[in-house]
Amino acid sequence: MLVLEGVDVFYGRIQALHGLNLHVDDGEIVTLIGCNGAGKSTTLRTISGLLRPRRGGVTFDGKDLAALPPNRIVQLGLSHVPEGRRIFTNLTVRENLDMGAYLVRDPKARRERLDRVFALFPRLEERMDQPGGTLSGGEQQMLAIGRALMSRPRMLLLDEPSLGIAPILVKEIFDEIARINREEGTTILLVEQNANLALHRATRGYVLETGRIVLEDDTKNLLQNPQVKEAYLG
Ligand SMILES: Nc1ncnc2c1ncn2[C@@H]1O[C@H](COP(=O)(O)OP(=O)(O)OP(=O)(O)O)[C@@H](O)[C@H]1O
Ligand SMILES: [Mg+2]
After folding, report:
1. pTM of the predicted structure, to 2 decimals
2. Substitution candidate for ligand 1 out of 7, 13, 40 with most atoms within 8 A of CB
C-alpha cells in the first residue's frame, strides 16, 4: 500500500534520512521506533508531503506522492496525526472534528463520521462544546486522532500518540488505535519512542537510528532481539 524506496531527506545541508526503505501493507499496524532525533517525524512528514525527498520515491497504491501537495495526499486516504497533537485550542471539540471533515461534502456522511468518532471516543462527545484547549493532554490526543478519522482515511500516520500522557490514558488510546485498525480496516503506521508499547501492538516494526533503518522484522522477533532489548526495552 505504502512504499518508500531509497529516500533521502535533507534539512538544508543536513541529511536527516539516508536511503530509507519501508513498506506498509493493507490492513497492517507497522511501527517505526527510534530515539530522539532518529528521523521518525521526518519520515512521516515526508510521506504526508510536508517534506520532499531529494532522492528516492514514495508511493501510495502505486501513485507517486512526491509530486502531490499535502491536501491531495489526504484526499488519497492518508491522514497524519502530527507530534504534539496540534489541535485548535480556541475551537470547540465539535469544530475541531468538523475541520477534519472539510473534504467530506455530504452532510449525512459527515454526521455518520462524527457519530463513529464519538463511538470510538465517548469522552469527546461528552466534551463536544468545550474549547479544545481545555481538554487534558490525553483527551487532546483523542481529539487529534478523531479529527484525522473524520476524513475516513485508509491509512493513519500516528506520531508518538503516547507522548506526555498518563499511562492509564495511553492504554485507552492504544486500545482505540487497535480497534480502528480492526473494525474500520484502517492501516496504521505508528511512530513511537515507547518501543515496548508499540512492539506489543504492531505486527511488524522498523528500528531507525540516525536516519537509517537498522532492523526490520515481525514485532515478536524484535521483542526477543538482544540489540532491541538492550537499546530500547531497558
Ligand atoms: N526543521 C528542521 N530543521 C533542521 N533540522 C531538523 C528539523 N526538524 C528536524 N531536524 C533534525 O532532523 C533529525 C531528525 O528529526 P526528527 O524530528 O525526525 O526526529 P524524531 O525521530 O522524530 O525525534 P523525536 O523522538 O525527538 O521526536 C534531528 O537531528 C533533528 O534535529
Ligand atoms: Mg518526532
Report:
1. 0.94
2. 40
